[in-house]
Design a protein that fits this description.
single chain, mainly beta, three-stranded antiparallel beta sheet, 5 strands, globular, binds zinc ion
Length: 115
């Protein structure tokens, strides 16, 4: 089960996410989400993490925010570029069996949700 904690992404953070150089052509860049949900498995501690922008070349811009409270304090929101985890499912059938969460993430790999 995933964490599913929501965050309204502040305008300044979306701007910051656009400052990272992308390997993708501009038209391949989807509009940044205005609100996001934590992509990790349910976790009692630590920052929430959500995908903001795919840079191509195995890098993704993530927004992270602190766990406590319904409304995250803007000071606790960070935008950072991290490499993709790259863990692969041992079963070769099916699609999306590579983990796309940030490297060294908490909880299970994304592909474990599809087994
Ligand atoms: Zn979370
Ligand atoms: Zn993973």
């Amino acid at each position: 089960m995933t964490c599913d904690k929501r965050l309204d992404v502040p305008e300044g953070m979306r701007k910051a996410a656009l400052d990272f150089p992308s390997e993708l052509p501009f038209e391949g860049d989807d509009p940044l989400p205005e609100d996001v949900t934590c992509e990790l498995d349910k976790h009692p501690f630590g920052d929430h993490v959500a995908l903001l922008r795919d840079l191509g070349n195995e890098f993704i811009v993530w927004v992270t925010w602190k766990a406590d409270g319904l409304d995250a304090d803007a000071d606790d929101i960070k935008v950072q570029q991290r490499a993709v985890c790259k863990s692969e499912s041992p079963s070769p059938d099916g699609e999306d069996l590579r983990c796309w969460l940030p490297e060294a993430h908490r909880g299970g790999h994304a592909w474990e949700r599809y087994l």
